[in-house]
Amino acid sequence: MVKRALAIVLILITGYWLANALAQVPFGADKMLVGKYYLENVKDQTGAVNAVTAVVVNYRGLDTLGEVTVLFIAATGVAALLWRKKRERTAKSEGSVVLQTGSRLLLPFIMLFGAYIFIHGHLTPGGGFPGGATIATAFLMLYLAFREYEIPHKVFEPLEGLAGMSYVIVGLIGLAIGGYFLFDWIWQTWQLGHDNIGKLFSAGFIPIIYTLIGLKVGTELTGIVDNMVKEPKEGGQ
Amino acid sequence: MEKASKISRYLYTVIVLFVIWLFLTSSLDPQELTIGLLFSIIIGALTYEVFTERGLANLHPRRIAYAIAYIPYFLWAMIMANLDVAYRVLHPKRPINPGIVECKTVLKNNAGKLALANSITLTPGTITLDVKGDRYFIHWIDVKDASVEGASDNITRPFEKFLKVIFE
To answer: Where do transmembrane segments lie in this chain (chain B) (predicted)?
Structure first.
């Protein structure tokens, strides 16, 4: 009781303190320092119509590479924590006909929509991370509907590594051509797609990197799901 | 039911995916079409084995015509169902007589069974609880006939005349 009351008082004090600090910032005032530069130059410098994508992949690409690394470490960590030699699915009952047929019919559509999200990253909201998560959802659905289902590991893990490596290689090519890591060589050096800004084939390496991120995130989250739903075989620790 | 050839199933998946892509992008820009076709081909190759059993035979004109005719028929049934439930909710005496009935279906195809189960759930106060073989277990808000034959006449029969052509 005392503990709970103390916790509530502490939260109220912290909340008041934060609200007080925020009250110093006038609402609606123009606070953009770097933002203006991004909005004014995004089309010429990157070719992307979606300014968020341009910032995430192009201007601050190193952060995205870090994010991808964090996700990779998370997936590896889960795999390391749950590692056993013999592991199998432990679901007791099969899904009904309705669930199984439904998930089989939905699978290609979910995957297509995930691909749609990541290839249109430079034009519409979304990008590699939402697209990859959508694709992982399709596999999660298969895991939930079928008792025996398992992803083809021989394809998934190499694909995951390959996508991550390709991201770094794209960055390294930029380093060789333009002088710094993740320099957008397709847009700045090759000048590819300069005449169709706003259409699909534009924005330099953003669609390529987002395709790689989409593949990586999709396979990675699926791998995490795969690790989490399997349990050690009885007596097979 | 025997499976169609791999090529037929693959082509069918690619066609369906490409049509969905056209609706998604709602643009006929050649760039969109190229990428859409590429993705349809890749995703089709990955998923056609789970997606379809009968392949191109699904695109028989008779089946498509029945499928298009089924849409307004089903929407009308759905509107009437929702008005019926609204009536039951608003009526002061609440005329409900709920129960679980068993129905039989003549459909043998899994996709057909899925369509029937979903159609039942979305229409006149009925919800599909489980499907086992050719038996449907249905929760009915107003049980008029508890026998298997009678319930089938009331619940599954009206949809089956369409679904049988579309999926069998």
So the answer is: 7-27, 33-52, 64-83
Residue B23 within a domain? yes
Find where tokens 């889960």 sit: A78
CB < 8 Å & 24+ apart, contacts of A169-175: A170/A205, A170/A208, A170/A209, A170/A212, A171/A61, A171/A65, A174/A205
In single-letter form, the type of residue at position A72 comes to: F
- For residue B41, the enclosing domain spans 6-58
A105/B13 touch (CB, cutoff 8 Å), yes or no: no
**B121, B107, B138: which is closest to B77 by C-alpha?**
B121
CB-CB contact of B74 with B119 (8 Å): yes
B124 and B50 fall within a common domain: no
Nearest CA in chain B to A202: B31
The pTM assigned to this predicted structure is 0.82
End-to-end CA distance of chain B: 9
Please tell me whether residues B108 and B83 are part of one structural domain: yes
Contacts (Cβ under 8 Å, ≥6 apart) of B58: B12, B52
As to burial, measured by CB atoms within 10 angstroms (0-12 exposed, 13-18 middle, 19+ buried), residue B77 is middle
In a domain, B1, yes or no: no
Rounded distance, CA A82 to CA A232, Å? 9
Q: What is the dihedral of CA B117, B122, B127, B132, to 10 degrees?
A: 0
Q: For B56, which DSSP code?
A: G
Query: Any chain A CB within 8 A of the CB of B8?
Result: no
**B52 and B129 assigned to the same domain:** no
Q: Which residue of B has its CA nearest to A149?
A: B50
Domain shared by B19 and B76, yes or no: no
Q: What is the pLDDT of residues B83-136, one digit of tens each?
A: 888 888 888 887 788 888 888 887 778 888 888 888 888 877 788 888 888 888
ipTM score for this prediction: 0.82
- The number of distinct structural domains making up chain B is 2
Domain ranges of chain A: 49-232
Residues B48 and B77 in one domain: no
